[in-house]
Amino acid sequence: QVQLVESGGGLVQSGGSLRLSCAASGSIVGIDTMGWYRQAPGKPRELVATIMVGGSTNYAGSVKGRFTISRDNAKNTVFLQMNSLNPEDTAVYYCNAAIYSKTWLEVWGQGTLVTVSS
Q: How confident is the model at residue 49 (pLDDT cuts 50, 70, 90)?
């Protein structure tokens, strides 16, 4: 069984920073794209950022220049450094990864809440 476990969410004031982490564990042969998504109350889940195994990144326009995604392939971990946070960034943040176990799997974490106060 493969799972993703996020950490690092919490409450922060507007203008502050947080760093999210997501570690994959289980019977893992390899991991391709890893990413972060978020879902604010009453809104659909949206892409925040993705990173491919080679390091290529993609960001939503709303976070470009403020958020940085990175990964440690040796530790099967992806990070999201979030700076200059504003109340519109308040959401549950979900980690996502394409993981090869006995077959390719799309795996989601349980989510971590980020709350930005004004």
A: very high
